[in-house]
Amino acid sequence: METLPPLKDIISKYKLSAKKSLGQNFLFDLNLTSKIARYAGNLEQSDVLEIGPGPGGLTRSLLNEGARKVVAIEKDTRCIAALEEIKTLFPGKLEIVQGDALSTDLRQYLTQPVQIIANLPYNIGTELLVRWLNSTTWPSFWQSMTLMFQKEVANRIVASPGSKAYGRLSVIAQWRCNTKIAFNIPATSFTPSPKVESTVVHFEALKEPRFPAEVNKLEFVVSKAFNQRRKMLRRALKGHFKNVEEGLLAAGVVPTKRAENVTIQEFCLMAQILVRA
Fold it and tell me: What architecture is the 215-276 domain classified under in CATH?
């Protein structure tokens, strides 16, 4: 690690100005990237998937913390040469995949157990998370995730019923995982500085979801309920399911409830009982 030039020199050398179109915000502070890597736990027996490594700040820390292997997928071709410099110092430990994380099957590069650790690009972070959580096969290919989001998104992931932040992400994430806020990272730590604070969230995959439900049915019920979160369930779900009020009562859910007050268990019961129109 000591033989690598500072990240700011790497940025200058390869002219890596962050692109807003790619959701890039580079984290230069290696103390913070090391903190993220350490929070994920012991990496020595795991492959690590990193999305959007950019100039490789977090990549350095993951390798320095002893990751068995890091698979780094980067869409920005400008960053590949910078990552190659890191690769030379960790022979056989870093695999660089140039491509789009949304359209690449990354499992082919990984050997279980797998941890996902990343400063996710802002513009695709939520979409990637939903894909990983909504896998039709469970347990998924990953055991844990340590991911950075905008603070508002992080708060939604860990929110409890009855709070304004509680929503679709809360239900899907907590149905299949133990979720926990790790720590916040101020905007000033990034280049360029985003307008919002960032938060690292840790996900520990459960062997089985907390309550029985088919993921596609649960996702449909939850999305329709929260699309009109201010309305009572019987109104929000009308037109999407047959005999809505009777179905809700059969699930033990009061039809006048609003989505933000429905527990994960209740959503799972609704997914089992309600019949799509």
Answer: Orthogonal Bundle (1.10)
- pLDDT tens per residue across span 171-193: 999 999 999 999 999 988 887 78
- What type of residue is 31? N
Rg of the chain taking only CA atoms, in angstroms: 21
- What one-letter code names the amino acid at 6? P
Q: Which two tokens stand for residue 126?
A: 């939520």
CATH superfamily of this structure's domain 7-205? Vaccinia Virus protein VP39 (3.40.50.150)
Asked whether the whole model's pTM tops 0.85, one would answer yes
Sequence letter at residue 254: V
**241-264 confidence digits (pLDDT tens):** 999 999 999 999 999 999 999 999
- Taking the C-alpha atoms of 246, 247, 250 and 252 in order, what is their torsion angle to the nearest 10 degrees? -110
DSSP string covering the chain: -TTSPPHHHHHHHHT-PPPGGGT--EE--HHHHHHHHHHT---TTSEEEEE--TTTHHHHHHHHTT-SEEEEEES-GGGHHHHHHHHHHSTTTEEEEES-TTT--GGGG--SSEEEEEE--TTTHHHHHHHHHT-SSSS-S-SEEEEEEEHHHHHHHHPPTTSTT-SHHHHHHHHHEEEEEEEEE-GGGEESPPSS-EEEEEEEE-SS-SS---HHHHHHHHHHHHHTTTSBHHHHSBTTEESHHHHHHHTT--TT-BGGG--HHHHHHHHHH-EE-
